[in-house]
Amino acid sequence: MTRIGAIFLPTWAPEALLPLAHAADEAGVDELWVWEDCFKQSGVAAASACLAATARMTIGLGLMPAPLRNVALTAMEIATLERMFPAASGQGSATACSRGWSRPVCGRPPR
Are the beta carbons of 86 and 55 closer than 8 angstroms? Predict the structure, then answer.
């Protein structure tokens, strides 16, 4: 079975997210993925808003920068979303401490 998905980039204006989520849900899109980028937007807030505002679409929360997030608090946030919206969420995380933007966050000096 083919599934259709969409993404919402964290560089886009956050006020555009809910109209896009509504339109995608009404158009029959199966999944909408949001993620966060350092110093741009919160992926958890975006996913929460989409989960509350859509009726049938899976909302994915991808690429939460691990150096910025405490593991226990991240688990607590994801567990809360899973309990509130058990059939409609997915998540992922990543780290890239070798990248220029993340080196100071990881406690490493800039190159």
Answer: no
Percent of the chain exceeding pLDDT 70 equals: 77
- H or E segment and range at residue 43: helix 43-53
Q: What contacts 100, CB < 8 A, 6 or more positions away?
A: 110, 111
- Which helix (H) or strand (E) covers residue 22, if one does? helix 17-27
d(CA 88, CA 73): 21
Does residue 32 sit in helix, strand or coil?
strand
Dist. CA 94–CA 66, nearest whole Å: 6
Compute the average pLDDT of residues 51-79: 84
